[in-house]
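Sanity check

After download, print the first record. It should look like this:
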Amino acid sequence: YVGEISPRKLRGFANSTSSFFWSLGKAVGQISGQRELLGSQSLWPMLMASCGLPALVQLVTLPFFPESPPYLLMQKGDQEGCKKAIRQLWGEGQHQAEIDDIMKEKATMKNTKILSVLELVKEPAFRWQLYMIVILTATIQLCGINAV
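Expected structure tokens:
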């Protein structure tokens, strides 16, 4: 959601910060799970319940956020809703350039062929990206953090 609602020039930054905070959350979980902090038998319920606080904050706040402007324009075709969401997210101002970018992206998506998984694996242009994703995902799964 954050990647979609951010302006185009900040989209890469917004998408990459999610993985940073994911890693930071895992590190904080490991540190707080140490026996000296919340890792004792009497404090385990408190440690396990600490996951509920961010979930509760999201549950309460997310209904007040607008739909993603690209979703409104590309999927629903609601240009007025898109403009309203952009004004609510980014403030008043000239946002026609962003709307035009979304329209160009929509036109590009119409002409793009959607690949099946097998076609994606066979496509040489995506091979290195696919290797990197597989290696990173395997590393995350095999590092032992999920077992902890």
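If your output differs, re-run the checksum step. Summary of this record's structure: Residues 66-111 form one domain.
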